[in-house]
């Protein structure tokens, strides 16, 4: 077994610009960073809202081992059957039962197993089940198979994200926030060995309003009309983190933030 595992966690893929950034840059990013495993949040791939079957298939072909999501995963009904049948695309674990799909997965890669958990916050979001209690429950089973556990915590509120991370410090390898699309500069390893960042950022047009067209976003703010956001066009980037971890203990050894 390798003495360390390198895992890429990639921020929310936004529309065709985000998919284009993956197509042009993911393979070289994996190669240059010597990544062993790729996790990406794909809930905004289909025009900014949801994920289509084609998006799912494309992300898998481009190198995603597990695709996570969030509150927008329900926008495209065509993906529901894929969610139910496959555990390499996740919906947040803490949606109330019964709910289609999977909230976590354990994937075998080379000579080790990696668990990925997708959870969603409740502050300024839907009042779903408690993410801490739900994650804690499945973690007891997951840790019987592997200590390498990576959590995508899809949430709005910074306080909630940080509190969630400290609740699982030493119990999981990493907690990475998603949803707000603005990459934060607070990457760190918490006292008991869990890597953390408040938000992975955006895979798409970063010189925009969280990946959306600035003109439409300004108009929406000024009029307060329920206008639909439009994905921005222009130069796009891949944002996220690279984590090195000890496969025996599951502890994070390093965390590196990137924009490519």
Q: Considering DSSP H and I runs of 4 or more, what fraction of the residues is helical?
A: 25-40%
Backbone structural class: alpha/beta
CATH top level? Answer: Alpha Beta
Give the name of the CATH architecture: 4-Layer Sandwich
Q: How many structural domains are formed by the residues?
A: 1
Order of helices and strands: EEHEHEHEEHEHEEEEHEE
Q: Biggest sheet, in brief? A: 6 strands, mixed
How many angstroms does the end-to-end distance come to?
30 Å
- The geometry reads as globular
Low-confidence stretches: none
The number of E-state strands comes to: 13
Task: Tell me the β content.
Answer: 15-25%
Rounded to the nearest angstrom, the radius of gyration is: 17 Å
Give the CATH H-level superfamily. Metallo-dependent phosphatases
**Overall pLDDT level:** 95
- According to CATH, what is the topology? Purple Acid Phosphatase, chain A, domain 2
């Amino acid at each position: 077994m390798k003495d360390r595992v390198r895992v890429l966690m990639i921020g929310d893929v936004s529309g065709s610009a985000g998919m284009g950034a993956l197509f042009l840059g993911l393979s070289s990013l994996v190669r240059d960073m010597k990544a062993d495993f790729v996790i990406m949040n794909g809930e905004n791939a289909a025009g900014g809202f949801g994920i289509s079957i084609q998006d799912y298939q494309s992300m898998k072909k481009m190198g995603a081992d597990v695709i996570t999501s969030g509150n927008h995963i329900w926008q495209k009904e065509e993906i529901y059957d894929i969610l139910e049948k496959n555990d390499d695309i996740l919906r947040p674990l803490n949606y109330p039962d019964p709910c289609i799909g999977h909230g976590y997965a354990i994937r075998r890669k080379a000579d080790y197993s990696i668990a990925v958990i997708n959870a969603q916050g409740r502050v300024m979001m839907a009042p779903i089940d408690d993410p801490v209690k739900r994650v804690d429950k499945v973690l007891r089973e997951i840790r019987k198979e592997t200590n390498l556990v990576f959590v995508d915590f899809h949430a709005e509120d910074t306080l909630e994200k940080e509190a969630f991370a400290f609740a699982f410090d030493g119990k999981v390898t990493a907690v990475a926030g998603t949803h707000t699309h603005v990459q934060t500069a607070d990457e760190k390893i918490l006292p008991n060995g869990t890597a953390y960042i408040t938000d992975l950022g955006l895979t798409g047009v970063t010189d925009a309003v969280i990946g959306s067209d600035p003109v439409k976003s300004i108009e929406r703010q000024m009029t307060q009309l329920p206008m639909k956001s439009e994905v921005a066009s222009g130069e796009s980037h891949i944002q996220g983190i690279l984590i090195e971890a000890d496969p025996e203990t599951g502890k994070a050894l390093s965390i590196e933030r990137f924009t490519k």
